[in-house]
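pls read this protein.

:::
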Amino acid sequence: MPPETRGRNFFPYRPVHLRASPPRPALAAFLNSVQRALASGQYDGALWTQGSPQVEETAYWLNLLLDTTLPVSGNAAQRTHGQISGDGDKNIVDSVTYLTSRVWADAEGRNRAGVVLIQEEQVFYSRDVQKGDARPGGYVATGGHGGILGNISHLGPVLVFLPARCHTYLSQVNVTRLPTTVLGLQWRGGTLGSVPVAIKNAQGELIGEAIPRVTIVKSGNYYADHYEDEPEREVDILARLEQNLADAPLAGFVTEGLSPYGTPTANAPNAALQRAIYSGMPVVAVGRGNNEGFTAPRDVFLGGNNLTATKARLLLMACLMKFGSLPPAADPDHPTDAELEAIRARLRDYQEVFDTH
């Protein structure tokens, strides 16, 4: 094997001066690696370890994209290895106990719990977990409806709840169900047109360059001079829109508004995001923070339900690879009735996945 390279093969976050954050294409690389391993027939399950700030997002990505009936558990450490009461080793032992216990198995031996995160003897569903603090016990359930599937005590693992959302082999956006190509959008010769985007290679593996670009836009109270203001926010969104059309054929936005309905705090950014939708980029609305309400769809804005903005971003990326871009209006400032109906028809496909995953 050739030597591994920092920032390409591994991504440390300590010491700080050597920190390297995984780029978007890494989402494809590690998904393909785990998918190959679990499809080989050599393993009974998988244990994924990662830095504590990132593991919640990776676990949810695997929950959406992996096509496997085997169990997968994520782990992180809140105290450094070797420190008194270091928790990392115990979390790994708990995951091995969980994976080998078959408490996750249904009557046919398939994983019924999806991808989980096991921290401090609690079994979190990957969709509904968030790091709240850098201490043992610092992970919290999000979404306001449980999130903790069970626990692991000295008597062994116990599951008391099961997720009703689609996951792994049941997911409509897992790697097997993704198409080989979809249509994206790009400026070519001064004209906006559809371009094919390769999603999977001949072996059925996800292509790193296909991972969509999804930007999070956050709203806050007392930001603008007037409700109609926030011109700088509008400029930022429009600049990102133009950049997406230039070099990101699959792109979208997540707007984090007020809880619990994802309400925006000013008109100008909202209008800019609406222009993005009419330019082919879906926009998901969520409530800010650990949103416990269900943000419903609003006109042409997708409803992110009770997802956090970071989890909604991952689901939108998966949906873009499933359905491709929205059909754009010839004039994004004045879409026709027929163009609006075409956009809404595609958004219904997106919304069905957001309501069930």
Notes: The chain has seven helices and 14 strands. Residues 178-356 form a domain with the Rossmann fold fold (CATH 3.40.50.40). The chain has a mean pLDDT of 93.
